């Protein structure tokens, strides 16, 4: 399968199910086994919804192994391996490369945000890509990365590296800026990092998305892309608007904890977040139940 085929479609940024602050690997495995029956293209583990920053390296490795072993053969696996330094990112990526990970997802370094110039980011990702045993994708999420926004100019340079194959755009910017920055013929693809820009991204040349609501409504998320591919733009628009509204009501304020509550209601094991993230309060949980019932998603 080509890189483009492996990256085309919807990915669930897999949550890490915590019970009393401990990872429940059995529940993680059961989530994957259930999602294997969906139309998802694959999974991203250790992303934002995976609460990757709250795991030890040892736990992160065990999560990757659990997902890699539980996923069906047709599913692509991305894993978040970004650390603050290029050195640590390379070391961790090398550690997990042989566990069945297809692509690394590397978050922009951001502790020294004011120093993350185009030059610094180009050097960082080039160094990581030069030494990574697996292809890498760039993860751009300024709201969680001290405002660091990798520029389209930097992407136009990095897209030419044979081992950098894409970007997950979770910024608030126009996703078309990245699509248009990719030099003709470069093997580099753009994925939307939010349901809110997913359909717009497809219209502008993105090839898929990593969508938190794909954890609990996988096939409805995939249906947007199916309708778009079939030229049914009006129906795609209608479904996209519906899912954006649900997403806003579910995880607009509650974030990962809310995604987990929606999963718990819809037959998955979201369980609870790990501190510092707090679980939702009773009234917030009830509100999500009401939204899902109102949408006919919960009886
Ligand atoms: O959890 C991640 O990592 C994501 O990519 C989620 C995505 O950014 C979203 O908010 O849907």
TrEMBL record:
Q: Which InterPro entries match?
A: Aldolase_TIM (IPR013785), DapA-like (IPR002220)
E.C. numbers? 4.1.3.16
Q: Per the record, a Pfam family?
A: DHDPS
Which PANTHER family does the entry link to?
A: 4-HYDROXY-2-OXOGLUTARATE ALDOLASE, MITOCHONDRIAL (PTHR12128:SF66), DIHYDRODIPICOLINATE SYNTHASE (PTHR12128)
Q: Which GO terms describe its molecular function?
A: (R,S)-4-hydroxy-2-oxoglutarate aldolase activity
Q: Which Gene3D superfamilies match?
A: Aldolase class I
Q: Which keywords belong to this entry?
A: Lyase
Family as reported in the entry's similarity comment: Belongs to the DapA family.
Q: What is this protein called?
A: 4-hydroxy-2-oxoglutarate aldolase
Q: Where does the signal peptide begin and end?
A: none
């Amino acid at each position: 399968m080509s890189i483009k085929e492996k990256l085309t479609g919807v990915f669930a940024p897999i949550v890490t199910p915590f019970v009393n602050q401990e990872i429940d690997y059995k529940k993680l495995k059961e989530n994957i086994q259930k999602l294997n029956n969906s139309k998802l293209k694959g999974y991203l583990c250790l992303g934002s919804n995976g609460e990757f920053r709250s795991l030890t390296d040892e736990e992160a490795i065990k999560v990757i192994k659990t997902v890699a072993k539980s996923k069906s053969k047709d599913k692509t696996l991305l894993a978040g391996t970004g650390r603050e330094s290029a050195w640590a990112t390379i070391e961790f990526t090398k550690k997990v490369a042989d566990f069945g990970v297809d692509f690394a997802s590397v978050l922009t370094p951001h502790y020294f945000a004011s120093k993350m110039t185009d030059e610094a980011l180009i050097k960082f990702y080039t160094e990581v890509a030069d030494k990574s045993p697996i292809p890498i994708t760039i993860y751009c999420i300024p709201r969680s990365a001290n405002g660091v926004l990798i520029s389209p100019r930097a992407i136009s340079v990095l897209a030419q590296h044979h081992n950098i194959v894409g970007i997950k755009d979770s910024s608030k910017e126009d996703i078309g800026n990245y699509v248009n920055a990719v030099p003709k013929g470069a093997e580099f693809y753009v994925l939307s990092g939010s349901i809110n820009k997913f359909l717009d991204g497809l219209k502008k040349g993105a090839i898929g998305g990593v969508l938190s609501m794909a954890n609990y409504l996988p096939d409805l998320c995939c249906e947007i892309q199916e309708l778009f591919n079939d030229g049914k733009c009006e129906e795609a628009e209608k479904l996209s608007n519906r899912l954006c509204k649900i997403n806003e009501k579910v995880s607009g304020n509650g974030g990962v904890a809310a995604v987990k509550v929606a999963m718990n209601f819809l037959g998955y094991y979201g369980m609870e977040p790990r501190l510092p993230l707090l679980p939702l309060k009773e009234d917030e949980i009830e509100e999500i139940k009401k939204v899902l019932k109102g949408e006919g998603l919960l009886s």
